[in-house]
Amino acid sequence: MKVALIQTRTPATHAAALDHVAPVVREAAGAGASFIATPECTNVVQRDRVKLIPHLVALEADPVVQGLRALAAELKVELLIGSALVKRPDGKFANRSALIGPDGAIRTTYDKIHMFDVDLPTGERARESETYTPGDAAVVADTGIGRIGLTICYDLRFPHLFRALAKAGANAIFVPAAFTRPTGEAHWEVLLRARAIETGAFVLAPAQGGFHEDGRGTFGHSLVVAPWGQVIAKLDHDEPGVLLADLDFAEVAKARGAVPALTHDRAYAAPLTATSQAAE
Fold first, then answer.
1. pLDDT tens-digit profile of 50-67?
2. How many whole angstroms separate alpha carbon 1 and alpha carbon 154?
3. pLDDT tens digits for 140-150?
4. Whole domain around residue 178: which residue ranges?
5. Which of 51, 57, 221, 225 has the most C-beta neighbours closer than 10 Å?
6. Which residues are catalytic?
7. Has residue 247 been placed in a domain?
């Protein structure tokens, strides 16, 4: 199965974001990909909440989502919008993946569960929970390339989510991201490889890369990891582009057969705190 990951440097407005991503999606389809995935924040990258919030609308009304749905239908490809920043029916906001079918229909969605609330050693501060409401459900979906699991960026640091997706039948797990540059350099590849090894699944990570209009820096380096943990495709830069990979799902069964850890769970009590006393 040929898949394509789109690496972007998404601008700070919806109109510019669609103009930015659409040609790269066309390039991926032209290269033969039947399934195409874009990064987190495909529809806009704007860290100033005052500028961002007034422009967020419902997923179905978002101009980038509308444009990509039409493009998927035109190109007859499945398209995973890694995430769009959207307004919920209750007036709150979500960081939401959307799986688009080759007919342009929205097949399923996933709201990012884990919020990136951190103070980095560089002095950079992030508080996603101040803007977005976290999701509360893991999602798998049947597609033309098999059953896939959906995650977004910071979810990568929570292996129990990946394990749940694999145990629900996911043979490929997507991690669309806008990783910071410091954490990307230190942790990006090793975490992605670890999640693939733990689950015996392909892990595919389309990323934002470079310095954006709003001043944010993202790491790029989109990559695909095979179920045994080897990187089989990678962009060694942060420039926009297309990463192609052929997936052989026989590798999933092979990896899980060699190390059947997904079948070895055991119940156990919560950790005990041991104390010691000096000998009398």
1. 999 999 999 999 999 999
2. 27
3. 999 999 999 99
4. 2-260
5. 225
6. 40, 112, 153
7. yes
